[in-house]
């Protein structure tokens, strides 16, 4: 059972010899066999797969393999958002899973006015249903999925000010989203969503995909679909998630090179913030309060952080050489932005090894006007005077950064 903290009677004790203690961050540019990583090929072909294996086995659980699906457009609204966008609601039905396995309901708004060429897209994971992300009266409301905020179930636009979909559309980007409970409810129960269908007998109980891995899997199936959408640019697929969903998008981008830009917004512990010397949310606390987010193996590290054979810099390093924008609020008591900036510093050598700029200067900016050519690299922390939330000012920074740093448009 994923999320079980107690070893059942008869389970052998953890062999701590395999997890030597180190208060220093484990080295990124060294293979398991001790050889130094010297070339981009050493990194991409050898070290990256080693780290992907490690973070899945010990933290997130193994990401299930992709599944084929049929994509059915269940609704098409050419004049959504007061005529600014075309809304496409697409249902992803997994053809090799039993028919009772849930579908993923992807909502996609494509700007009706945009620069020539293929359109970049932001894909997000939402808390409480697609109708909650905008006040657009045309989005279908679903009430059959779990949401911890009961007042949002069946309600429209509860988080419209947070997702700022119109702002994204006005800037010429498409916006896509799915409700996390399509894949897994945010609770320590394992009978709903896709877990019953995606768990594998080949994987040890302690490394079954936990909630964050299942959410990430759903995002990557949405990417499968977005990459096929004729108007969208498959080279400019961006992922954004907040907090627990920030942890999720970081893991998804670490596992899949199709993501051009990832924005783990205020992702904190288990996301961009290092677990070692984390004086805000400890691994012990996150495992205790949210036992379903990470796999069973991760439980042993609560109070034993120096024994984690990697740290969050290893997760973030897997995004190299792509774009990683770490957005933080300086009044956010959860996300530990100083320890997230340390992660950026620790991974910078990987971008440099791959011939990229990585960090420019300290890597920290505190205003969106600082996003200028030559002033920012593929790695950046944008820290605004905000709390634990997403605002239009963050979106302005994110979209300015995307305009500047994403590859130029592919011709239609
Ligand atoms: C907190 C949790 C954080 C963060 C946050 C959120 O309670 O401890 O790690 O994920 O929730 O998702 O808003």
Give a verbal description of the structure.
- A ten-stranded mixed sheet has the order 1-2-3-5-4-6-7-8-10-9, with helices on both faces.
- α6 (211-226) packs across α7.
- The chain is built from eleven helices and ten strands.
- With 412 residues, it is of the alpha/beta class.
- The termini are far apart.
- The longest helix is centred in the N-terminal third of the chain and has 21 residues, at 40-60.
- It is globular, with a radius of gyration of 20 Å.
- The chain binds beta-D-galactopyranuronic acid.
- The site of beta-D-galactopyranuronic acid has 7 residues, from loops.
In short:
The protein is of the alpha/beta class and 412 residues long. It is built from eleven helices and ten strands.
């Amino acid at each position: 059972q994923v999320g079980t903290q107690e070893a059942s009677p008869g389970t052998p004790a953890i062999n701590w010899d395999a997890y030597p203690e180190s208060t220093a961050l484990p080295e990124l540019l060294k293979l398991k066999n001790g050889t130094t990583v010297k070339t981009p090929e050493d990194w991409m072909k050898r070290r990256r797969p080693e780290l992907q294996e490690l973070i899945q086995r010990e933290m997130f659980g193994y990401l299930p393999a992709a599944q084929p699906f049929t994509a059915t457009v269940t609704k098409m609204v050419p004049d959504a958002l007061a005529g600014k966008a075309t809304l496409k609601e697409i249902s992803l039905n997994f053809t090799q899973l039993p028919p009772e396995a849930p579908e993923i309901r992807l909502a996609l708004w494509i700007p009706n006015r945009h620069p020539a060429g293929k359109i970049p897209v932001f894909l997000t994971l939402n808390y409480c249903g697609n109708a909650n992300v905008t006040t657009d009266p045309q989005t279908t409301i679903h009430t059959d999925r779990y949401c911890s905020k009961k007042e949002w179930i069946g309600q429209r636009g509860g988080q419209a000010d947070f997702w700022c979909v119109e702002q994204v559309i006005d800037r010429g980007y498409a916006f896509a989203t799915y409700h996390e409970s399509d894949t897994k409810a945010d609770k320590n129960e394992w009978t709903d969503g896709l877990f019953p269908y995606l768990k594998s007998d080949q994987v040890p109980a302690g490394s079954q995909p936990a909630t964050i891995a299942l959410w990430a899997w759903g995002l990557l199936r949405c990417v499968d679909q977005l990459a096929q959408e004729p108007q969208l640019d498959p080279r400019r697929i961006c992922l954004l998630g907040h907090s627990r969903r920030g942890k999720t998008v970081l893991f998804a981008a670490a596992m899949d090179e199709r993501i051009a830009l990832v924005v783990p917004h205020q992702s904190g512990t288990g996301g961009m913030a290092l677990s070692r010397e984390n004086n805000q949310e400890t691994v012990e606390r996150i495992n205790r309060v949210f036992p379903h987010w990470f796999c069973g193996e991760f439980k042993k590290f609560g109070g034993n952080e120096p024994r984690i054979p990697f740290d969050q810099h290893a997760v973030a390093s897997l995004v190299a050489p792509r774009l990683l924008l770490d957005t933080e609020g300086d009044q956010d008591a959860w996300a530990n932005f100083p320890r997230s900036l340390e992660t950026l510093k620790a991974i910078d050598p990987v971008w440099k090894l791959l011939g990229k700029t990585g960090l420019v200067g300290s890597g920290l900016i505190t205003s969106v006007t600082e996003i200028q050519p030559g002033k920012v690299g593929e790695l950046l922390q944008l820290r605004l005077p905000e709390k634990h939330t997403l605002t239009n000012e963050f979106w302005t920074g994110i979209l300015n950064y995307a305009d500047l740093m994403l590859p130029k448009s592919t011709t239609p």
